[in-house]
Amino acid sequence: MARPTPLSGFPEWLPDGRIVEQHVLDVLRRTFELHGFAGIETRAVEPLEQLLRKGETSKEVYVLRRLHDEPAGADEPADRQGQLGLHFDLTVPFARYVLENAGRLAFPFRRYQIQKVWRGERPQDGRFREFVQADIDVVGAGALPYHYEVELPLVMADALGALRDLGVPPVRILVNNRKVAEGFYRGLGLEDVEAVLRGIDKLDKVGPEAVADLLVAEAGATPEQAAACLELAAVHGGDASVVDRVRELAERHGASTELLEEGLRELGALVTAAAERAPGVLVADLKIARGLDYYTGSVYETVLVGHEDLGSICSGGRYDTLASDGTTTYPGVGLSIGVSRLVSRLLSAGLVRATRSVPTAVLVAVTSEERRTASDAVAAALRARGIPTEVAPSAAKFGKQIKHADRRGIPFVWFVGDADEDGAPAQDEVKDIRSGEQTPVDAATWTPPAEDLLPRVVAAG
Amino acid sequence: MARPTPLSGFPEWLPDGRIVEQHVLDVLRRTFELHGFAGIETRAVEPLEQLLRKGETSKEVYVLRRLHDEPAGADEPADRQGQLGLHFDLTVPFARYVLENAGRLAFPFRRYQIQKVWRGERPQDGRFREFVQADIDVVGAGALPYHYEVELPLVMADALGALRDLGVPPVRILVNNRKVAEGFYRGLGLEDVEAVLRGIDKLDKVGPEAVADLLVAEAGATPEQAAACLELAAVHGGDASVVDRVRELAERHGASTELLEEGLRELGALVTAAAERAPGVLVADLKIARGLDYYTGSVYETVLVGHEDLGSICSGGRYDTLASDGTTTYPGVGLSIGVSRLVSRLLSAGLVRATRSVPTAVLVAVTSEERRTASDAVAAALRARGIPTEVAPSAAKFGKQIKHADRRGIPFVWFVGDADEDGAPAQDEVKDIRSGEQTPVDAATWTPPAEDLLPRVVAAG
């Protein structure tokens, strides 16, 4: 077998990169649990017809077949009925899980879910075919109060803030409210709200002039209406004054509506609460449109400060119908962190690093193969006290064993005391191979410095 | 959307089941790291031609295609070249990972890997189409000393032993050595070793008489040779006396060979070390054959005591060629825990349970929506001290808020003190809703009893 090469779009990390990813995942999980979110996992596959309910995403789905199935076999027919595809996000499976288990869940149901998803898109920097998402959602049965639209981005602010201890740059969470946009557009007299949102969504890519042309050509806007939409999109700020600015703008353009007013009350409440609970993290940004997604209230995007080119690393919003079984409708609000996108940038830009690539703190040297069991016993004693330990692969010269530890990044090498002539054990010794310092120790009591016990993730350079 | 039904073979757990699974995974990971194994993850897909190298498994593979690809499009042609399939184990991807990254890994390389795998098999009790495996392997470059064949099952004994704290039943690890079997068969004059192994592998299913017939019919054995093979397969025991019994048997049948003797030395060393380091867990069992797998030395299977019908929950062995790039061969030894198989039995047989289905220890009640921020502040203070906390969904009557906590299994409800007429804050109080006891508390200092802080996993009943 020749040396294989990586598959584009399917990232894998070396062990030290995986330590970074695992630390990120641990911090996220810990934060979500502190906020009372229960962890669930769903299967990787969903019926194809479920995955294709949102027509937009059909291009991206990976369809499965069993290798030896006949294309039109009885078990898995060739038409879509019964076919399975890999999930492309964690929202569609979560909606299905909620419906399937509604009778056994307590609502509002708070869940986090950290899993891989797959999209058959063309890979780019930060855009993969297989990647890890970390989602939180709250879903209600029949109704869901607005205050969850304030709470959920603040949970993410807490989670992403906790990552700063690992050396991750700060984030800025950009929020908008669909009701504000829709209320304003309708107040202006624009009825094709989707077309306007589609145009505004391109602002960062093509610039305001091209968007104005688009709004005229595709959303039926006059140049004046287009200009007003662009004025709205330009509003942003970290305090409640944005609400006043939008209100002033709407009055000036005669675009005030009840829907706009409702959206502004919500947006104002969110910005005010955020300014208090996560100062400087959350910013109202009226150009955030979230494309054609099914959001109906707050929408969120998140940039890594200094890495805005990466695009959003945490997005979501409020949807009035996550799922419905005909009797009950389940509204929800949620956000999803693109963990692979974030971690790939952390690694490729050298922003953070693991202090070593193995969990091992101590390598117990082996004096001779006959005495390996003495080294095994020391290792067991250290592990019993929570110290990650391995035993040297061979009874090579000590210099070679130290080199093995060095190559693996293990900070300490333990030498088991030889029984002396009288049969009394000589003292064990441990060497810090970074300083070269070697000291007499006892496996029942010695502990490495706290910072050496486990690999840590720290800001690089 | 009608209420969806589960997909056979794709298990999912409710939140309390997921807590059990997550605890199991945490204990495994923790133990593997204590033993110096580095965690890696590989992508879920491999080139189909890689997955089909072992012909036996070709039936089980799920093949991927992108929904809108033409069957013979330029991007992913219809022939196997370039096609991707989901991995059916973690060994094939690990072998590829080792080859791909050999220059950046230190050997012997110790890794653990906990991921889902997929097999298009017919689902049965404990046999799924999607399931989680937890693997450990040590792989050497060019050579790998025998002592790793002793170490790895003992790491698994440690990991599975650590699960006993959660209420998981004890396990028995059954070991054999291919060299013993092959040496014995060849000593008897049987050359088609694979055919003999294939027959012996059916012993538990069809019984000794049918196996004897098989050995005669398919392995070219005389009835006497078949009887000798069955005598060997009947040998088992937890100490080095098994070695003597096999040696005696071989002498009686004139079947002693150098290969047999080498295998017996290895098996004896393993059983002796295990009797000391994990007494009662590891048993030599000469009928363990591991089908047609590519093992060349020790082989391992593991049963959950009292649940032998479940089949092996942890299997593996020594393979002389995990991978090869033409220049270097990478021998290895590893075991794989069938986590989904284990967890599904723990849950379905009611062996263990989570003490609650949510991480939340405290629900902070809300007096009125205007005072929700006061409840948010208490929640933040508790979380800052590591206490999982959520805030009530609405300012309903306290009785209803307590009921919400009860339904979710949250043990404590916190009442924020109302400001009294003088503006001085009244005391906060917390109610243990199980005992009904309500006591004055301070969010800066109160801590729940340790056993209530997080959901625990305990033996049921």
UniProtKB/TrEMBL annotation, chains A, B:
This protein's record includes keyword Ligase: yes
UniProt enzyme class: ligase
Sorted UniProt keywords: Aminoacyl-tRNA synthetase, ATP-binding, Cytoplasm, Ligase, Nucleotide-binding, Protein biosynthesis
Superkingdom assignment: Bacteria
Subcellular localization(s) per the UniProt record: Cytoplasm
EC number(s) from the headed UniProt entry: 6.1.1.21
Main localization (coarse): cytoplasm
Region: Disordered, residue numbers: 425-449
Catalytic activity reported: tRNA(His) + L-histidine + ATP = L-histidyl-tRNA(His) + AMP + diphosphate + H(+)
Residues covered by the Aminoacyl-transfer RNA synthetases class-II family profile domain: 15-359
Pfam family, one: HGTP_anticodon
Keyword Iron: no
SUPFAM superfamilies, per the entry: Class II aaRS ABD-related, Class II aaRS and biotin synthetases
A GO term, aspect molecular function: histidine-tRNA ligase activity
Oligomeric and partner information: Homodimer.
Entry similarity comment: Belongs to the class-II aminoacyl-tRNA synthetase family.
NCBIfam families assigned: hisS
Protein name per UniProt: Histidine--tRNA ligase
Source organism of the structure: Cellulomonas dongxiuzhuiae
